[in-house]
(S)-3-amino-2-methylpropionate transaminase
Amino acid sequence: MSKQRKFVNVSAGVPGPKGASIIARREKAVPSGVGNNTPVVVETASGALLHDVDGNTYLDFAGAIGTINAGHCAPEVVNVLKEQLDKYIHTCFHVAMYEPYVQLAEKLAEITPGSFEKKTMFANSGAEAVENAVKIARKYTGRQGIVSFTRGFHGRTLLGMSLTSKVKPYKYKMGPFAPATYKAQFPYMANKPVGMTEEEYAQYCVNQFEDFLLTEVSPEELAAVIMEPVQGEGGFVIPPVSFVQGIYNICKKHNILFISDEIQTGFCRTGSMFASTHFGIEPDIITMSKSIAAGVPISAVTGRAEIMDAPTAGEIGGTYGGSPLGCVAALAVIEKMERENLAERAQIIGDTIQKHFRDLQKELPVIADVRGLGAMCAVEFVDPQTGAPAKELVGKLTKGCYENGVVVLSAGVHSNILRFLTPLVITDEQLQEGLDIMTDVLKGIYVTN
């Protein structure tokens, strides 16, 4: 695979000598449980490009697991961070307040789904946002139960793991887990029963949920249902609209709060500022993080004002929650997304990726499914003879991709799904070059096998 590329250059090898040296140091100093997908040691990054310590350049199709929708080192974000550093770095909002916290709360109330009064609190990570959303829901309702869904992912904290479905690597031997957490079935269109239409399958899954409330937990015991509008770690699983609306309506009927986990789907990834919009729902609470601030650690919980006001002073928050740096970065990111219409750009990117792999699917039966919502796209691989998940092939594919200059991640409970989280500022040329490289790698592996 020695084709001349315009953007990618891996002539130093992956990893190169400097990178290999740092990785050797890492192995001595950093626990093995801190996972890593690629042996790439970054020195600089810009837009959709990563540059490593050996002078290699990669196309980033992983986006720091969906964190860099606005691109690496977006000038607008870098500038406001530099300005903020000259003013103050941290005062702790609980001690001495600052306007950017209030400004960002006002902005999220404006742009999140729901035509009702909202309030927002800030934390540091997606898992913290989930934890606080659950605390707030329990405080408001006076109930304890929380329902999540199979294949769902909600973080690595104790409660996050309890709500998460995939056992390895996230939960194995990490229990016991938090009580009063339950898991209901989530529809998976790739496994839809033969002969059943999408709408029939959606209704079947809603009926399953109604049975779940009879066999597993009473609705009177439930504070909230938490759902990713599109499942992330679970394999970019897109549920039917009628399923999401069906669960949402059941929640309304029983006064169960609906928490939309938009940590990976939010901020233009799915072709809309928030994925909930695609499903025609107005969540009671929304959790956000990842691409909210282009890589600066911050997360948010936005919800109906009366719900968010349920905890008393001191019951939610944290020393670093809503840091000034995160707040100004988030405001710059949102302004950029609105000004450049990155939601529309996400749709174009997603259409390009899906068309590319659907065309490829015609000649490579190992591609079982190509799906996506906006630029949140996935390609699922199975053994065409047995239908078994092709985990080993996807492992070779992700390795071959980074060795040839494209950083991409797998997903799914079987790790047989290739997921795309490219920065939304990626150019058409960059996107096509990355897709061409991935195609060459895939064909090389598949023909060899």
